[in-house]
Amino acid sequence: MSSLARRSSASIRSRTAHAVQMNGKNQAAAPVERKAAAASTSASTSSQLPSSSGRRLCLFFDGTGNAAFLEKITNLPTGFGLACNEPDKQLLYYQTGIGTTSLNLSAGLMPSMLSKLWARISAVVDEGIAYSLPAHIQRGYQFLMNYWQPGDQIFLFGFSRGAYTARALAGMLQRVGLLPAGNEETIPLAYEIYKKDRDLDEGVEKESAARAFKRTFSREVKVQFVGVWDTVSSVGAVIPRILPFANGSSYIRHFRQALALDEHRARFAYQPWIASDEPVPADYSIKQVWFAGAHSNIGGGLFGYDGDREPALSHLTLRWMLREAVEAGMWLNEDHLAASPIYAPFVEAADRAVAAGDDPALEAYLAKVAKSNPDMPPETAALAFIAASKSAATQDDALAPRGDSLSFHIQEYPPEIKKKRGLGGRFKDWWSRQMQRVGAAAWWALELSPTLKIYWDIEGNQRTWTLRWNRARGRVLLPDPTFHFSVADRLAASPATLLEHGGGNNENVPETKGYDFKAQFLPGQSMKNVTYVE
């Protein structure tokens, strides 16, 4: 940990302890009042919220081909590392993505070279047909089965196909419930019933197999929070696979999704929230927010990992998601936040804001956190809030490099960096650009060929199969879409500003004409229908 990070984390800890000890002094008045308010509201909300003494079970499902520190680094391992992992408060679970060699266990008995070859072939096939999807869902289910206790809250996070996995797991929990601990051998049966639900004849009345299974074997659980980055609409690049998601606004208490404005590949059609006819209860919420960038700009992992030191579009979505999760009751690790380049610049501002107590938006946020997690230190919650708010640092992230897998135009490193790279380094950079262009040609071949896709209507009431020639067309936006404030910053930036901030990383697309997102409005809608949010 750097000296700055040590000072920052010590600042958070010392201020928190100071506030507890000085509850009779002015400096600590605001934190003490917030804790008292939380105590006074706990009785009134106890009938609606799970027990505040219950733990949080947080599951992180990584994206296609992503394995932390082995393949590309996305927001999932980063978020995992920022979360609190104390058994009496919160348990964490991380799963590598579909198409990663690390999940292929069948090659363990083969010789080393054959094992590696088999693992790679299996990973490629998995990306095409997603044969490991059932295993991914069932492993997440098994974790919950063995660790969930009454009063615990479930938080599910995912990116890309990992987002699909998280939402399918929520659907499985809704349909068949959660088996008692130790029933590993029954999980495949529960999965098959979830996947192929059917009616059972029982005298005059009929009951679905899933409902009968749930009534007989399972515990009733609900999901406190689902936070996903750019869910794909089906899993399997060659053969689409679909599974039921959780539906009904009363099952998932809080749903959050960050969506990519600039993803326009056929194999990455997005899946919005599937609504139901029932009204959303007052204390439940659904937010789907659009951000600038392609699929992996939103979830992270598009460019080489730099330890999160340089500005990135994915930092915006991570801060937004964790702010929402903290509001719903998730614990973050204050030391890890202070040591993270994504959060360290905001530590002092958060401490000052808590001490001042004069920011209405922050105070309203802290009041919500106090209801969902009364023991959360206000400084930690304030850091999650301040870091996700508009600032000079977030503007740098808003103007950061953007990728486009269908573009043959690639912005090279700036001249001063090229000089330092040497002849060998410059050749490697040139070769990397050529390989990216080969990849773009392959993606274009898919764009110009028919793609079998599955679409839900906007209410999620009907599923249709269709053949579609995408031809690099942008996504169709949701009605009256919600944009993140960073999109406005990028739209307002001049081409020169974007080129300067982008800087060129030998992978990003140069925006010589300024930024104009790829997504398309529904007929009759325009920028006038957009709402900007923090």
Automatic annotation (TrEMBL):
InterPro entries assigned to the protein according to its UniProt record, in alphabetical order: Tle1-like_cat (IPR018712)
Pfam families, alphabetized: T6SS_Tle1-like_cat
Domain T6SS Phospholipase effector Tle1-like catalytic per the UniProt entry, residue ranges: 55-324
Region (Disordered): 1-53
Source taxon at top rank: Eukaryota
Residue spans of biased composition, Low complexity class: 1-19, 37-53
Protein name per its UniProtKB record: T6SS Phospholipase effector Tle1-like catalytic domain-containing protein
Organism whose genome encodes this protein: Rhodotorula taiwanensis
